[in-house]
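Field reference: sequence -> structure
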Amino acid sequence: MRPIVVRVIRVLDWPTYDGWLWLDGYELSAKGAAVARRTLFVMSAGLIWLDTPAPAARPSTTRTPARRGPVSVR
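Structure field:
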């Protein structure tokens, strides 16, 4: 078994055993990108809730203008 990191969308209100939960969420890659949607049946005592990471700084949206003029095509 290997642990996975999941972004939880919701805790489902499905009947379970005491101490167990159904979770709906996305499995995250090492870079934090969602790679697969998952519905998980988990023991709540075995979960490790991570702090919500700060949003990543967005790269500048400033673009350099395209050069205009004649173009040679071969």
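Note: The first strand starts at residue 5 and ends at 12.
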